[in-house]
Amino acid sequence: MKFKINKKKIKQEIDLDEIFLDSKNLPNFNTQQFEGRLEKAIPKSSIFFLGAFFIFTAFVFIFKLSDLQIIRGEAFYKKSENNTLSEQPIFADRGLIYDRDNVLLAWNTWDKNDINKFSAPQRTYIADPGFGLLLGYTSSPSRDSSGNYWQDTFIGKDGVEKYYNDQLTGVNGVRITETDVRGQIQSENTVSLPKAGEDIKLSIDSRIEKAMYNYIESMAKDVSFSGGAGALMDIKTGELIALTSYPEYNSTILSSGQDTKTINEYFSDKRKVFLNRAVSGLYTPGSIIKPFIAYGALAENVIDPLKKILANGSISIPNPFFPDMKTIFKDHGSFGYIDMTKAITVSSDVYFYEVGGGFQDQKGLGIDNIDKYVSLFGIAAKTGIDLGGEKNGIIPTPEWKAKTFNGEEWRVGDTYNTSIGQYGFQVTPIQMVRAVAGIANNGIIPTPHIRLGDKEMEAKKTNINLNPDYLKIIQNAMRDVVIEGTARALDLPTVKVAAKSGTAQIGYGNTNTNSWIVGFFPYDHPRYSFAILMEKGPKAASGNATRVMSEVIDYMTANTPEYFK
To answer: How far apart are the first and last CA of the chain?
Structure first.
């Protein structure tokens, strides 16, 4: 019997990887290689699940693709179309600011190559000193890192720029640009043209503004005052001819925002560069309050204006804490027997101690009436000026003392000090220029403002119905202050001035002073009131504010004679 062997099924050679493991080759088996392993076929279940996964993935992909292309395709198409279009502002001119004689004070500087106004301009201001805190500054249009404007208008941040921001702000135009994927502009169209903001004309005379600031700055540097402020107002209209504050910031630097070194110096300056002292600064008034106390004493029949009081340098009253001791209230000089006119002329403290708080047989006005008559002239109250940041002042009263000093009782010594503008008295220069206008204007008190020809503001006058005979006594006394009293620096040949000076003691131990001068001119037919404050100077620095105002009037006589016609 023969067997037929199929040679096709017989392999001539056996590969090494086909050798079975046995006890002889086991020690040489490398477990990290495929040597000696038995091959096993992939299970059909694994192939089934792998195939199902690929089919599911394909199904999800097809579904998502159909959703994007068919179901929501049109929406995404429109969105992609909009992504190629962008809206850009065409910048409007911000309104210009002029002084009363059409001198340009604030304007816009454009890139000379940007004829279509597609980039934001720079806000630029007059280079002369004295205008910083008056005009203020702006926050300029700003872009993000992609070059898109997140702020596309100027925003006024202080001064005129802030108060009149709505009027000065224009309406930007709009342009639509189409760009390709590389950001290249393919086309652009103007949708709307820009509309310029409203121009503002101020009542300020830039010549006087600059001169007043320079004289205040010079006095501050020469005598070591920490600051100063000044105001000159038309008492008939309330228009301010000058309103300045020292020290000040540079409006162009702040609006540009590029000079960070200077800006940081502004913030670190202990003199408070951002404080508009004329409007927001609160200061002890000192003796400039005396004409108003005098009017109250006359109106309440506290004293006959011709009655003389012995002012020999001080008065003494029993000490409420130590009855055996005396509390002494000093004067700055010994003047003998003086009446009201002389008391205002030489600025006697003793006279006003007695008239204000009473002494021996002389009755006093009393703190309630002091509050009444000082308030009548608008002192320590906001004036309503068209500038932001205005502050109220303080007239010391028993209620104020109890609230401020934990219920402490009011004493006659407090009334004495209040009568001469000390203790807790706080006023602003703009309040005092308005109050003095009430004296000069026979009881008609205007509202100070800085926009020229503002009829609405001009109409905001208050007639406080003062006694003309009493007013004349006060007016004459203020003229005598200039002729033979504490403000002789204003006894000028070119114009008759009436005034009242003040030296307010401030600081711990009264180591510093505020120097004041308030008044009006021409005396015979008053038209302008003024106030100058020199802040925190040496103790002996009295009369410095008077010299500043004298220099201002000398300047006006030579350079702006129209104010004396």
So the answer is: 157
